[in-house]
Amino acid sequence: MSFFQRLQARVDQVDSLLCVGLDPHPELLPEASASAAAEFCLRLIEATADHVCAFKPNAAFFEAYGGAGWDALEQVIRAVPGGIPVILDAKRGDIASTAKAYAQSAFTRLGADAITLSPYLGGDSIQPFLEDPEKGVFLLCKTSNPGADDLQSLPTAGSGPLYRTVSQLAQTWNVRDNIGLVVGATDTSALTQVRLDVPEMWLLAPGVGAQGGDLERALMAGLRADGSGIIIPVSRAIAGAANPCAAASETREKINACRRREGGPPFKVSDARLQLADTLLAAGCVQFGSFTLKSGLQSPIYFDLRRLVSHPRLLRLVARAYLPILESLAFDRLAGLPYAALPIVTAIALASDWPMIYPRKEIKDYGTRAPVEGEFQPGERVALIDDLATTGASKIEAIEQLERVGLRVEDVVVLIDRESGAREDLERRGMRFHAVFRLSEMLDHWEQDGLVSVEHADAVRKFLAGGPSG
Fold this sequence. Notes:
With 470 residues, this protein is α/β, with parallel strands linked by helices. It has two domains: 3-260, TIM Barrel (Alpha-Beta Barrel); 270-465, Rossmann fold (3-Layer(aba) Sandwich). It has helices spanning 3-14, 34-48, 59-63, 66-79, 96-109, 123-130, 149-152, 162-173, 188-197, 215-222, 236-239, 244-260, 269-282, 312-326, 341-352, 393-404, 422-428, 439-448, 454-465, and strands at residues 18-22, 54-57, 87-92, 114-117, 136-142, 155-156, 160-161, 179-183, 203-204, 230-234, 286-292, 298-303, 333-336, 356-359, 372-373, 381-389, 408-417, 432-438.
């Protein structure tokens, strides 16, 4: 059984994504000694074992005591009950025979099940740690410390920031399915982007608590679609509690409350929407520059929502964002506009069990020659779904096509209103127009959070003030 299969088995067994860090800081000990460090960790293991998916001892606090500390670390690892994985937080990084020696030390001498590694010496430096699929590694990708951006966010050609190069390389190195990534809970935008890059890979997300990481936002960004796939390590908040057992139990329940909630953690609706806006930006679905629109006008912003088909998790989040609006409407079927909206409306239908149809962009001259695909009855009401709205022209064309086969369209729902005349055009036609986002509110949020430059935001506002863009 591979390391991550064993980790998943433990997660399922105790219903927990909590990892307790075994970090015997000297100020937490009665005396600065290897034996005191060991006793501290042994008590913590005994108190919290029933609530954790893994333990994570930090090698540095033991190495500081020399050979006695090394023996204490081995004692602590071997005291962890069977079935609970041990992740050695050592952040090793070296090459050839040295890397092999580090692997032997961690896995054979100490008995750890996994280790944290630096990937910056390249693929050959981590190969000795990957030879046994029963042992796992977590590569440093986007760490939680304040100086992480000095190197890890440097732009690279074609891959975005350097940490994304790491996440993409990790997939190519993961031939034995025993690689995970360390991505700090302190940067949920990076956590979101890495999860999009590696939808199935396990993430270790340090930084919750004292470092400022928000538990709920980290889970929103890092959970896999199955509600698993991310480990939340917590150290001082549990080790320093009056009752570590109760603290571990409470933390596990907080994590599980977020996992159980349909659609993500219990944010306010506005926060969930803004998180989705950030995710769309991180995934490249929003771009700034100079783009020629269908009308021929030059726009400083472009929405490429066709990219959603390459990001299944993000597509699911987008579909869920439509649901609160649609649940307030009366209709019999969904209708999606070709082509960008078809994946979205399909995802909505799968999430809700509402049947869908779609008007054809080109009517075939063979077969049924149907102008509208799917099952429907004349007189039924249809909620028209599209990805975004600039002017209402394409929506009105689709509405007329649907009406010609006897369907009634009363509501149009889009993800993004570019605020360029669509609402007015459709309301003049007698339609009710609904949007998950207005472009102006997305801009305000991105600018306020420093995700978009003042220059780009001002250019878009100036463009919008100039009138409809087509």
